Task: inverse folding
């Protein structure tokens, strides 16, 4: 009480004793405009290699299987670039219009906001920051979704009718399956400078403890597969995937009969600290309905299996590896 703490005292932070308070951060008021992360993303998606002498169209069409992007897709990308470099309001050098849409959509998902509430908030912002004064705000959630669909963040709605269900004289699907196409997303792993190098880790990485299994590449099943398919094993950029599916009640009420079955792919090319990270999981299917799909799940997996067959049958899908050009 009189002399204070002994300066030799060691703070037991491992036993939940609070550490000494850190000094307040020094605020730097000299702000420098930064290039939007969204611009970097678009650069990855529309990458054309330097050795492409004839400037031929490449797989820059985000989701198309043809090597020639349509004019409409090119126009959409030009609009995206403009949005990624457009100030949210006059003099704003930190947040672009595309940055605002991405962050605001993230808040919607994190806070579980309904579409109607989200639209009301946008409408309120438009009144507070009127477009007539130069603010570039999106008009609705629909407009935001339409914008991001151009970057490949979309899905296909597939109606499963099964037994005929009618509502007001109209045929209503028993289930509406959501399928997120995997081919453009696998391409994107090689288009992005953040992930391209990691996609061959399984061939270049080393197990630090040979007697332990740190990654599926260390297991006997992987090695047996390589022995059986030598042509596949020769190219380290060939993709290895794991598939998992499980159901849950989205309403958190076990007494309510409803289930959602997500089907998720994990990319085992990636190093162990990435391949099992939640941000690396690839959601491919969402199977909703009053009941679980049960033994009929193979019917819903068909679209995914067809894409996997296209890749496995060596029809191949050309893409760009930014790590090697």
Result:
């Amino acid at each position: 009480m009189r002399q204070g703490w002994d300066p030799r005292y060691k703070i037991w932070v491992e036993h939940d004793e609070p550490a000494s308070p850190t000094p307040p951060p020094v605020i730097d008021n000299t702000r420098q405009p930064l290039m939007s992360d969204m611009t970097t993303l678009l650069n990855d998606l529309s990458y054309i290699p330097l050795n492409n002498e004839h400037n031929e169209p490449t797989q820059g069409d985000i989701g198309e299987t043809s090597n020639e992007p349509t004019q409409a897709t090119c126009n959409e990308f030009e609009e995206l670039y403009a949005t990624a470099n457009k100030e949210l309001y006059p003099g704003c050098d930190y947040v672009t219009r595309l940055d605002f849409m991405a962050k605001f959509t993230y808040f919607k998902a994190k806070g579980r906001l309904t579409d109607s509430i989200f639209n009301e908030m946008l409408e309120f912002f438009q009144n507070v920051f009127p477009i007539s004064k130069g603010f570039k705000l999106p008009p609705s959630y629909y407009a935001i979704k339409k914008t991001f669909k151009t970057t490949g963040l979309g899905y296909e709605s597939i109606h499963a009718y099964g037994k005929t269900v009618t509502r007001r004289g109209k045929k209503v699907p028993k289930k509406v399956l959501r399928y997120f196409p995997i081919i453009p997303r696998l391409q994107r792993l090689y288009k992005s400078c953040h992930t391209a190098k990691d996609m061959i880790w399984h061939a270049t990485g080393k197990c630090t403890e040979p007697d332990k299994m740190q990654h599926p590449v260390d297991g006997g099943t992987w090695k047996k597969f390589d022995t059986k398919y030598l042509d596949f094993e020769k190219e380290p950029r060939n993709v290895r995937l794991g598939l998992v599916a499980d159901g849950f009640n989205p309403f958190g009420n076990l007494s309510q009969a409803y289930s959602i079955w997500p089907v998720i792919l994990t990319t085992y090319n990636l190093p162990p600290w990435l391949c099992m990270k939640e941000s690396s999981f690839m959601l491919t299917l969402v199977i909703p309905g009053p009941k679980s799909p049960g033994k009929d799940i193979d019917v819903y997996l068909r679209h995914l299996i067809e894409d996997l067959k296209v890749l496995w049958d060596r029809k191949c899908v050309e893409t760009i590896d930014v790590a090697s050009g």
